[in-house]
Amino acid sequence: MKPLPPLLTIPLLALFAATSAFAGLADHTLDIYWVDVEGGGATLIVTPTGESILIDSGNPFERDPGRIHKVATEAAGLKKIDHRLIGWSWMLWDWNWFRQRTSESVVARVLGRANAGDIVVMHDGDESAPLADQRYTVEATARLIPALRAKGFAFGTICN
Fold it and tell me: Which residue among 2, 3, 72, 116 is the one 20 to 30 A from 93 at the CA level?
Protein backbone atom coordinates (compact mmCIF):
# COMPACT_ATOMS: atom_id res chain seq x y z
CA MET A 1 0.00 0.00 0.00
CA LYS A 2 1.36 3.41 -0.98
CA PRO A 3 1.28 6.24 1.58
CA LEU A 4 -0.79 9.30 0.75
CA PRO A 5 1.17 12.24 -0.65
CA PRO A 6 1.83 14.86 2.08
CA LEU A 7 -0.11 17.52 0.18
CA LEU A 8 -3.22 15.32 0.31
CA THR A 9 -2.72 14.07 3.88
CA ILE A 10 -2.94 17.46 5.59
CA PRO A 11 -6.27 18.51 3.98
CA LEU A 12 -7.77 15.09 4.74
CA LEU A 13 -6.73 15.33 8.41
CA ALA A 14 -8.17 18.84 8.62
CA LEU A 15 -11.44 17.66 7.06
CA PHE A 16 -11.64 14.72 9.48
CA ALA A 17 -10.99 16.97 12.48
CA ALA A 18 -13.57 19.53 11.35
CA THR A 19 -16.31 17.00 10.65
CA SER A 20 -15.85 14.96 13.82
CA ALA A 21 -15.33 17.81 16.27
CA PHE A 22 -18.83 17.67 17.71
CA ALA A 23 -20.30 14.38 16.69
CA GLY A 24 -23.95 13.53 17.26
CA LEU A 25 -25.30 16.97 18.06
CA ALA A 26 -23.55 18.78 15.19
CA ASP A 27 -24.46 16.37 12.43
CA HIS A 28 -27.65 14.90 13.99
CA THR A 29 -26.42 11.32 13.71
CA LEU A 30 -26.20 8.47 16.20
CA ASP A 31 -22.49 8.13 16.93
CA ILE A 32 -20.93 5.12 18.63
CA TYR A 33 -17.36 5.15 19.92
CA TRP A 34 -15.52 2.06 21.12
CA VAL A 35 -12.69 2.60 23.59
CA ASP A 36 -10.15 -0.11 24.40
CA VAL A 37 -10.29 -0.69 28.16
CA GLU A 38 -9.02 -3.48 30.34
CA GLY A 39 -11.24 -6.51 30.08
CA GLY A 40 -12.87 -5.45 26.81
CA GLY A 41 -14.21 -2.21 25.49
CA ALA A 42 -16.16 0.77 26.71
CA THR A 43 -18.89 2.03 24.41
CA LEU A 44 -19.78 5.70 24.26
CA ILE A 45 -23.01 6.53 22.45
CA VAL A 46 -23.94 10.07 21.43
CA THR A 47 -27.51 10.52 20.19
CA PRO A 48 -28.60 12.90 17.44
CA THR A 49 -29.75 15.29 20.20
CA GLY A 50 -26.32 15.23 21.86
CA GLU A 51 -27.29 13.07 24.83
CA SER A 52 -24.58 10.59 25.78
CA ILE A 53 -24.28 7.27 27.61
CA LEU A 54 -21.18 5.34 28.58
CA ILE A 55 -21.46 1.56 28.80
CA ASP A 56 -18.60 -0.03 30.79
CA SER A 57 -15.72 2.04 32.02
CA GLY A 58 -12.90 -0.45 32.42
CA ASN A 59 -10.87 -0.38 35.59
CA PRO A 60 -10.81 2.71 37.81
CA PHE A 61 -7.10 3.38 37.52
CA GLU A 62 -5.51 6.09 35.37
CA ARG A 63 -5.32 4.37 31.98
CA ASP A 64 -8.97 3.60 31.24
CA PRO A 65 -10.60 6.81 32.53
CA GLY A 66 -7.96 8.78 30.63
CA ARG A 67 -8.73 6.97 27.38
CA ILE A 68 -12.47 7.45 27.83
CA HIS A 69 -12.03 11.14 28.68
CA LYS A 70 -9.92 11.69 25.56
CA VAL A 71 -12.50 10.08 23.26
CA ALA A 72 -15.42 11.86 24.97
CA THR A 73 -13.86 15.32 24.85
CA GLU A 74 -11.67 15.23 21.75
CA ALA A 75 -13.51 12.88 19.38
CA ALA A 76 -17.12 13.37 20.51
CA GLY A 77 -16.75 16.99 21.68
CA LEU A 78 -18.57 16.34 24.96
CA LYS A 79 -18.21 18.44 28.08
CA LYS A 80 -19.79 15.70 30.19
CA ILE A 81 -21.23 12.21 29.82
CA ASP A 82 -24.94 12.31 30.63
CA HIS A 83 -25.50 8.70 31.68
CA ARG A 84 -23.33 5.82 32.78
CA LEU A 85 -24.52 2.25 32.70
CA ILE A 86 -23.15 0.69 35.84
CA GLY A 87 -20.89 -2.31 35.86
CA TRP A 88 -19.15 -4.43 38.44
CA SER A 89 -16.38 -3.11 40.63
CA TRP A 90 -12.75 -3.92 39.91
CA MET A 91 -11.70 -7.42 41.03
CA LEU A 92 -15.09 -8.15 42.62
CA TRP A 93 -16.32 -11.12 40.66
CA ASP A 94 -16.60 -14.80 41.31
CA TRP A 95 -13.87 -16.18 39.06
CA ASN A 96 -10.12 -16.10 39.25
CA TRP A 97 -8.22 -16.25 35.97
CA PHE A 98 -7.92 -19.88 34.87
CA ARG A 99 -8.03 -21.29 38.40
CA GLN A 100 -10.60 -23.62 39.89
CA ARG A 101 -13.58 -21.74 41.27
CA THR A 102 -14.43 -22.50 44.88
CA SER A 103 -16.67 -20.82 47.40
CA GLU A 104 -13.62 -20.27 49.63
CA SER A 105 -11.70 -18.40 46.92
CA VAL A 106 -14.71 -16.24 46.03
CA VAL A 107 -15.39 -15.33 49.67
CA ALA A 108 -11.72 -14.46 50.25
CA ARG A 109 -11.57 -12.32 47.08
CA VAL A 110 -14.72 -10.33 47.78
CA LEU A 111 -14.29 -9.88 51.55
CA GLY A 112 -10.73 -8.69 51.06
CA ARG A 113 -11.65 -6.08 48.45
CA ALA A 114 -15.22 -4.86 49.00
CA ASN A 115 -15.73 -1.17 49.72
CA ALA A 116 -18.82 1.00 50.13
CA GLY A 117 -20.69 1.36 46.82
CA ASP A 118 -19.08 -1.64 45.14
CA ILE A 119 -21.01 -3.94 42.83
CA VAL A 120 -20.16 -7.64 43.06
CA VAL A 121 -20.78 -10.00 40.14
CA MET A 122 -21.80 -13.58 40.94
CA HIS A 123 -22.56 -16.01 38.11
CA ASP A 124 -25.10 -18.73 38.72
CA GLY A 125 -24.89 -19.96 35.13
CA ASP A 126 -22.55 -20.13 32.17
CA GLU A 127 -23.94 -20.07 28.64
CA SER A 128 -20.77 -21.70 27.30
CA ALA A 129 -21.18 -24.60 29.76
CA PRO A 130 -24.86 -24.75 30.75
CA LEU A 131 -24.46 -28.03 32.65
CA ALA A 132 -21.43 -26.88 34.67
CA ASP A 133 -21.67 -27.07 38.45
CA GLN A 134 -22.20 -23.54 39.80
CA ARG A 135 -22.83 -24.47 43.43
CA TYR A 136 -19.69 -22.63 44.48
CA THR A 137 -21.43 -19.34 43.63
CA VAL A 138 -24.53 -20.16 45.68
CA GLU A 139 -22.37 -21.28 48.63
CA ALA A 140 -20.17 -18.18 48.39
CA THR A 141 -23.19 -15.88 48.23
CA ALA A 142 -24.72 -17.54 51.28
CA ARG A 143 -21.48 -16.86 53.18
CA LEU A 144 -20.80 -13.39 51.79
CA ILE A 145 -24.10 -11.72 52.62
CA PRO A 146 -23.87 -12.22 56.41
CA ALA A 147 -20.11 -11.57 56.41
CA LEU A 148 -20.53 -8.26 54.54
CA ARG A 149 -23.49 -7.26 56.75
CA ALA A 150 -21.29 -7.93 59.80
CA LYS A 151 -18.77 -5.46 58.31
CA GLY A 152 -21.52 -2.81 58.04
CA PHE A 153 -22.54 -3.29 54.42
CA ALA A 154 -26.18 -2.97 53.33
CA PHE A 155 -27.89 -4.47 50.30
CA GLY A 156 -30.53 -2.90 48.08
CA THR A 157 -31.76 -2.28 44.58
CA ILE A 158 -29.85 0.03 42.28
CA CYS A 159 -32.89 1.49 40.53
CA ASN A 160 -36.59 0.84 40.14
Answer: 72
